[in-house]
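Quick start: read one record
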Amino acid sequence: MSLLRRPGALWLADGLTLTALLVWGVAASTLPEFVLPGPFAVAKRLLALFTDADFLVHTLASTVRVLASVLLALVIGSGLALIQRAWPALDWVLRGGVQPFLNSFPSIGWAILAAIWFTPGHGSIIFVQVAILIPFCLINVGEGLRQIDREALEMALSFTRRRRRIAWLVGMPLLAPYLLGALRISYGIAWKIALVAELLGSTSGLGYLMLRAQGSADMTTVIAACFAIVALFVAGERLLLEPLARRFAAR
C-alpha cells in the first residue's frame, strides 16, 4: 500500500499516536524520572523485557500462566456446561448456585485466599485465574449449547449413529463461535487479573516485577511492564485467536 493510497483512518491513527508520544515526551522532560519516564527510556526497558534474560523469565512466567489458566478454565467451564445440559436436574444447582457464586466472588478475595492456602508460585496464580475465568467460560459455552439447533442434530442422526462424529462435524461448528467468544473474553481478563494475583502471591512474573519496581521507584519498569502486557495480548489475538476464528469460519 503506497502512502498516497492509505486510508484516512490510518493517517488519523498514526497522527494521534505521534501526538500522544510528543505530549508524553514533553511532559516527561518537566518531571523527574520516578514520576514519569520518557518514551525512549520506556521503549528500551520494554525491549529488555523480551530480550534480557533477567527480565524475560518474568515475561515468560506470566505468559505461561495466562495460557494455562485460560485452557483450564475453558475445559472446566465447558465440562460444567455439558453437565448442565446432560442432567437438567442439575441446571438449578449450576445456574442458581455455582454460577452466581463464582460471578460475584471478588477477584481480590481469590488472590488473598490463594496467598493463604498455597505457597507462592505458579499453582497459586493459576488457581486464582482459573477460579475467576470459569464463570465466563461456563456462561458462554452454556449459552452455545442452548442455542444448538436440535433439528440439525436429529437430521445428522439419519446419516450416522456415531454420536462422536455428529458432535465433531455438526455440534462443534455450531458451538465454535461461543467457544471462541469464551476464549477471547478469558484471554483478555486473564492478563488483567494476572497482575493482581502476582502482586500478592508470586516470586516471578510481570506483576511481581512491577511490585519490585514500585518499591524502588522504578517507574520505567512499571510502565514498560504495562506495555508488555498490551503487546502480549495483541500477539495472542493475532497469532492464536484470529487464526482459530478463520479456521472454524471456513468449515
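Residues 38-249 form a domain with the MetI-like fold fold (CATH 1.10.3720.10).
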